[in-house]
């Protein structure tokens, strides 16, 4: 019964944590029994079971409970199969969503060598606009996961494609994550490539795209500032923050220091 499999998946994370804490008694139980079930249920015929399996997988990755060998030999291959061009539409949408979510939890080398090529392909998926929409909405997170070199070499050309997509929702998603993408690039790329691209979004024919671009204008401009002198930095949640200067900290030493936060919309969906 699908409900039984769904309930089982919901119990996997706490069982895995217990096994990890009791590893001397159960050294291989998780890898031999639980992990194969999680991977198998990613392709289950029932969408609720698949969803429960995806949620369990993300929790396991977040808790650093999945071995690197299992990530590379079991998890990534099945996601690549599910997101292949000839894959079922529903499976493909789910696979690209999970790839984007797990990118920030994996090592840079794993993301760049195993998942980035497929992500670039999915950005140009001409069959499903939902796939391109997920890629656009999570573009900043992928850039952050792979770093500047891979972003400028492989991702920026795809970002240009998405920013000129015929579906306005795609262009709007790009405008919302523009600051996160810009922050990952060099000042030269920011100035010569991203600035003209941003102007095209702020001049878009769709008012919703223009509105999203104007909301991202301040955060995008902030990426041109020198972090050491401006005190700007990006938090782990994707928001732009300003560190108070040493003078401000000293003058308010008796008061709790507050960080001014500007929403970057980097994680908007």
UniProtKB/TrEMBL annotation:
Region (Disordered): 247-269
Cross-referenced PROSITE patterns: HEAT_REPEAT (PS50077)
GO molecular function term, any single one: protein phosphatase regulator activity
Signal sequence segment: none
Keywords, comma-separated and alphabetical: Repeat
GO CC aspect terms: cytoplasm
Segments annotated as HEAT repeats: 115-154
InterPro entries attached to this UniProt entry: ARM-like (IPR011989), ARM-type_fold (IPR016024), HEAT (IPR000357), HEAT_type_2 (IPR021133), PP2A_Regulatory_Subunit_A (IPR051023)
Name of the molecule in the record: PP4R1 phosphatase
């Amino acid at each position: 019964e699908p409900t039984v499999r769904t309930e089982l998946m919901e119990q996997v994370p706490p069982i895995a944590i217990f096994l990890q804490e009791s590893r001397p008694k159960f050294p291989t139980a998780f890898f031999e029994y639980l992990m194969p079930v999680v991977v198998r249920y990613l392709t289950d015929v029932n969408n609720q079971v698949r969803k429960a399996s995806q949620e369990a997988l993300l929790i396991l990755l977040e808790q650093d409970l999945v071995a690197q060998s299992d990530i590379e030999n079991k998890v990534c291959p099945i996601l690549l199969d599910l997101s292949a061009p000839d894959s079922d539409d529903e499976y493909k949408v789910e696979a690209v969503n999970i790839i984007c979510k797990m990118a920030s939890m994996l090592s840079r080398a794993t993301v760049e060598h195993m998942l980035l090529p497929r992500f670039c392909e999915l950005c140009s998926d001409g069959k499903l606009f939902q796939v391109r929409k997920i890629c656009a909405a999570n573009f900043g997170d992928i850039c952050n996961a792979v770093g500047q070199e891979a972003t400028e070499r492989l991702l920026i050309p795809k970002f240009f494609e998405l920013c000129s997509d015929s579906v306005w929702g795609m262009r709007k998603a790009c405008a919302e994550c523009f600051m996160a993408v810009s922050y990952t690039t060099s000042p030269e790329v920011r100035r010569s490539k991203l600035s003209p691209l941003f102007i095209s979004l702020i001049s878009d024919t769709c008012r919703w795209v223009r509105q999203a671009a104007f909301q991202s204008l301040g955060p995008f401009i902030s990426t041109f500032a020198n972090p050491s002198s401006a005190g700007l930095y990006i938090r782990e949640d994707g928001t732009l923050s300003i560190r108070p200067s040493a003078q401000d900290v000293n003058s308010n030493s008796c008061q709790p220091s507050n960080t001014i936060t500007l929403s970057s919309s980097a994680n908007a969906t």
